[in-house]
Amino acid sequence: MRNMPLIFIDIETTGTRATRDRITEIAAFKVVNGHITDRWVSLINPGTSVPSHICQLTGIYDDMLIDAPSFYTIAPSLREWLGEDCLVAHNARFDASFLRNEFKRVGINYQPQLRCTLRISRRLMPELPKHNLRSLLAHFNIHQARQHRAEDDATALWQLWKVWQQQFDAASWQAALADEQRHRSLPAHLASEQLTGLPASPGVYLFYGHNRLPLYVGKSINLRSRVLGHFQRDHQDDKEMRLVQQIQHIEWEETPGDLSAQLREAELVKELMPIMNRQLRRQGHLKTWYWPTDQPCPTLVSGKAISQPQSGKLFGLFRSAKEAKAALRSIAETHQLCPQVLGIDKGTGRCFANQLGKCRGACCGQEPLESHSQRAQEALASFQVNTWPWPGRIIIREKSRKNGPTSHHVIDHWCYLGSATTKQRALGLKGVAAKFDVDTYRILNRFLREPERHNLTISPL
Asked: Mean pLDDT, to the nearest integer, of 434-441?
């Protein structure tokens, strides 16, 4: 390690999104055999204004950057200066992600080796409550002239590195470095031991942040592959970067198969409301278009109608009446249907759309109502909500692996009532009240189209 050149680096940026925000300052010190042999320090003109809250944090303002070089200008010489040497940074994947994206914009490939002092700190001193740079400098009484300025942060980081080498014996130091490299793809705040036993089987996983704040719930048919995959894409996906920066704890649950995993994921998202799950959260009072068999137009009803026997057809699931009407109006315009006959517009006689040549005249006898209804239902066919094909409740037996667990899911008119490991226990769920959920409907609809392909056996109750 003493003969390997290290580059202690810090960057300041216009924000936290590596794919969109830009670098405003770079400071890097090249260290060989314990001595700084070269420096690279420069403000960078990001080509955009710096947000006010970032200015207050860093002390870097737009007027300071007007005459600074752009990254495009310095990229070739900086890339040559960096060479293939290892970068040392606090939360190194953050700095490296910005550098990789800035170089990528000018057509230069850069994939540096990294040493993350945040991960090293967690391995050297797991008892410390905080491992951010400011807390570590205070713990070791290391002076820092300014916070969130690249040169001062890089200098402080180099001082911290030297103190660690003095404070810890060679065996502990080398063990920490080796462990950091062994788990270099993991989030900096996540202890590697938490991944012990993570299986390559179906299930759900939960990411938590500080104070066990739920960050994200996901599912996969291969938990290990999916979880580790989150940690590989942070430099190219802003959501993954935000997630990786905050993860401090992981939990997971194995399931008998993909259906179990998807049902459990939907259940946990609604229960925990993780801050980074946009889908599968509670969707309020849904609406759907109900078209009775003897009527010329549909009626807007509650989405709960899907879990009840109907004599007509249901089309679409919408978050609001406004969204439902907008969808029906768009279909009417596309297929020259009459908005007046469909009940979207009020009035009698020839409608305004017909006067514009956008309606074939069902409103004024130019088109028979039967023909109009047929065309309208054909146009809505892709939105049709499947009716429940069984007379009552069913049990779905799921077993995707030969020696894996089995689950029995009880479903009633697209409503998920619960699961049990045996059919006998599942029968005990018969008294559970049915509650319709659109995500459950969509999940079940996909799986029940081809039950054999998903290793599902269906038994009516």
From this structure: 82
DSSP classification of residue 323:
H
Tell me what pLDDT residue 204 has.
Answer: 97
d(CA 12, CA 22) in angstroms, rounded, equals 9
CA 411 to chain centroid, in Å, comes to 29
Phi and psi angles of residue 99, each rounded to the nearest 5 degrees, phi first:
-65, -45
Residue 235 pLDDT: 64
Q: Is the pTM of this model over 0.90?
A: no
pLDDT band, residue 400 (cuts 50/70/90): confident
Q: What's the pLDDT tens digit per position in 2-11?
A: 468 999 999 9
pLDDT of 1 > 50? The answer is: no
- Give first-to-last CA distance, the chain, whole Å: 68
Structure tokens at 162: 């030297």
**Residue 281: band (very low, low, confident or very high) from pLDDT cuts 50, 70, 90:** low
The maximal CA–CA distance of the chain, rounded, in angstroms, is 94
Rounded Cα gap, residues 208 and 215, in angstroms: 5
Rounded Cα distance between 413 and 303, Å, is 13
Q: CA 409, CA 447: separation in Å to the nearest integer?
A: 12
Closest-CA residue to 176 (of 113, 111, 115, 89):
115
Sequence-ordered list of residues with C-beta below 8 angstroms from that of 260, at least 6 positions apart, any chain: 202, 398, 407, 409, 419
User: Rounded to an integer, what distance in angstroms lies between the CA atom of residue 177 and that of residue 159?
Assistant: 17
As a whole number of angstroms, the distance between CA 262 and CA 444 comes to 9
For the range 370-373, what are the long-range contacts, defined as Cβ-Cβ under 8 Å and sequence gap of 24 or more? 372/296, 372/337, 372/338, 372/341, 373/296, 373/297
C-alpha span between 130 and 358 (Å, rounded): 66
Instruction: Using alpha carbons, list the distances in angstroms from residue 108 to 25, 30, 34, 238, 446.
Output: 19, 21, 30, 20, 44
In order, the DSSP letters of 131-190 are -SHHHHHHHTT---S-TT-HHHHHHHHHHHHHHHHHHS-HHHHHHHHHHHHHTTTS-TTS
